[in-house]
Amino acid sequence: MLRLTWHPTDQPPLLTADSVHLWRIDSSLSASFTAQQHWLSEQEQARAARLVNPQGRRCFVRTHVACRVILAHYLKTRPEQIVFAAGQAGKPMLVNPTLPLEINLSTSGDLALLAISLGEPIGIDCELLRHRVDAVAIARRMFGAAEVAELAALADTRQQLSRFFEYWTALEARVKRDGRGLGAHRQPEPADVIVTHARPTPDAICALARRNLPPPSAWHTLCLNGVPAKLYCRI
Fold first, then answer.
1. Are 63 and 225 in contact (CB under 8 A)?
2. Where are the alpha helices (DSSP H) in 41-125?
3. What are the Cα distances from residue 9, in Å, to 69, 110, 137, 231?
4. Is 99 in contact with 81 (CB distance < 8 Å)?
5. What letter does residue 53 receive in the DSSP assignment?
6. Cα separations in angstroms, 24 against 72, 126, 219
7. C-alpha distances in Å from residue 93, one per residue of 26, 38, 143, 194, 218
8. pTM of whole model > 0.85?
9. Which of 23, 107, 145, 182 is 20 to 30 A removed from 222 (C-alpha atoms)?
10. What does the pLDDT average to over 39-66?
């Protein structure tokens, strides 16, 4: 499976319809990102306030502030001026963007990935492989008979977990692409939807789903960590 290499940058490259930009947002972002919580919408701030764990709350704030910082560069605006709304199927979308950006965010533990596509809805899901789940029990509820049988036949726990998360991230990425949610995961979708897996870190797996998804050679894997001040101070 492809292992992603992350490239720190203070200016995202050109986004085209034939490429995908994938950003890794590190939880060790500078404290200035927490201080910019007022950039978030009332809904985002309310979600953050409902998080009981202080570390989880800080991570949520930094991740969502970072998303605004990143998107502000594409949209040529200030991070706090970006407005989000729920689409017809409930998927977060940008309101009146200057570019037809399609976005999707996934978090797992201290890992956060933001996928950006031009004009074509995209879905992403990431999972830390160290998370323990009852793979076969979940598979019986969510996957087909062939997948259940394959997982049940794997005696090695690590191998079973890895294979389970391949199926799970693919399912999540697909339903996040069009916002239909897990409850509608068996609904038909366009035949040209492609799902590709990768390893964003050694202990995690991610899946991207998009119609006519470009090959990984056309992905730009970018890292915000280490250059937050440059990114938002130059706007």
1. no
2. 42-49, 54-75
3. 13, 20, 42, 8
4. no
5. S
6. 16, 11, 13
7. 23, 20, 28, 21, 24
8. yes
9. 182
10. 92
Give, in order, the Cα–Cα distances in Å from 101 to each of 37, 38, 84, 119, 154.
23, 24, 12, 6, 41
Cα angle: 110, vertex 31, 44; to 5 degrees: 65
Question: Which pLDDT value is given to residue 132?
Answer: 79
Q: How many CB atoms lie within 10 A of CB 194?
A: 13
Please tell me the CATH code under which domain 7-233 is placed: 3.90.470.20
- The per-residue pLDDT for range 136-173, each reduced to its tens digit, is 999 999 999 999 999 999 988 889 999 999 999 999 99
CA dist 67 and 222 (Å) reads 13
- How many residues can be counted in the chain? 235
* pLDDT for the residue numbered 225: 57
Q: What is the DSSP letter of 99?
A: S
User: 64-80: per-residue pLDDT in tens?
Assistant: 999 999 999 999 999 99
- What whole-number distance in Å separates Cα of residue 125 and Cα of residue 206? 5
Q: Provide the token pair at 119.
A: 């004009």
CA dihedral 149, 152, 154, 159 (to 10 degrees): 100
* CB 150 within 8 Å of CB 96: no
Three-state SS for 102? strand
Q: Domain locations in the chain?
A: 7-233
Tokens 């323990």, residue?
Answer: 132
Read off the tokens for 217: 């050679």
Query: What is the C-alpha separation between 201 and 73, in angstroms, rounded?
Result: 25
